[in-house]
Amino acid sequence: MGRVPHVAIVGAGRMGQGIALAFIHGGLSVALIDMKVREPDDERLYSERVRLDLDRELCAKIGLGRITAEQARESAGRVSIFGREDGLQALSDADVVFESVPEVMTAKAAALSLISDVARHDIPVASTTSSFLVTELATLIEGPQRFLNAHWLNPADLMPLVEISRSEQTDDAVIDDVVGLLERVGKVPVVCSASAGYIVPRIQALAMNEAARMVEEGVASAEDIDKAVRVGFGLRFAVLGLVEFIDWGGGDILYYASRYLAGMLGDRFEAPEVIAANMASSRNGLRDGQGFYTYDPDTVGDYKSLRMREFSVLLDEVGLSPEYGAALAPVPEKTRRG
């Protein structure tokens, strides 16, 4: 997909609009196709509402300083909005198709049937589903070797990550094409197998449920839990990945901490077998030179310094870097207690 591709998005709701915004921001033209059959007047009104929604988002980007007014006008001109029947030619001309209809199997089946009938059979087709496995949906399209899931995080136009899920039938070349396309518009794709929850939603669901459970148990207020996540958990993992951080702290530390928490709070805190296996083979992380990653002793110092610089820059950016000598400054009246 070396040339400038024609992108078609089947489904003009919130997710479809967000994906369209991402591609037009990157300079590509998009056909945004409403899948629902409507009366002519209803179709016109719906298209006008979608156009208004897109214009509102573009205006918001101007307000945020992300684009200029001229760039907003150019971006708006790169998206064409079609009803189901009017969009057939655009679907036929597409070099890649993203399906983004509601998370209902009958709606997915109808959209993928239309794509099979109208779109070229040599192009990638990606569902944006957050609910269905790629292996389930691949049975609904002609040519499952060109099919994959592409899970965008909301807001799709701003969040860099797109999770690509493939089946055993998906061609490597299709993965490469879609990954390359996403990278061209500034996205950061990751690839995973057909597993419920992809990567982020699976981790996120555990964290959100545990946060809600702590509120329920009276461990801390919602405000303090959210503060802890924003300035602790969130900042740390903006620089270090979760698996990478296991290596920094030590797999054995995680193992023993997990054993204690499991005893106090329940089996959900038990460490997986891979942690014990790494311990048995002296793969505890940075201090062993190997863990989930392997660390070259000649470059590990530079690697650690890089991560600490990245963390320092992030703290500066969000205004949380501690000031030298701050404890000697007068205490503002409003922070005193008692």
Automatic annotation (TrEMBL):
> Which residues are in the 3-hydroxyacyl-CoA dehydrogenase C-terminal domain?
197-295
UniProt organism field:
Rhodococcus opacus RKJ300 = JCM 13270
Which enzyme type, at the first EC level?
oxidoreductase
Question: What GO biological process, any one, is recorded here?
Answer: fatty acid metabolic process
NCBIfam families according to UniProt: PRK08269.1
User: Which family is annotated?
Assistant: Belongs to the 3-hydroxyacyl-CoA dehydrogenase family.
Protein name (record): L-gulonate 3-dehydrogenase
Source taxonomy lineage? Bacteria, Bacillati, Actinomycetota, Actinomycetes, Mycobacteriales
The record's section on SUPFAM superfamilies has: 6-phosphogluconate dehydrogenase C-terminal domain-like, NAD(P)-binding Rossmann-fold domains
Record text on subunit structure and interactions: Homodimer.
- The protein's superkingdom reads Bacteria
- Which pathway does the record list? Lipid metabolism; butanoate metabolism
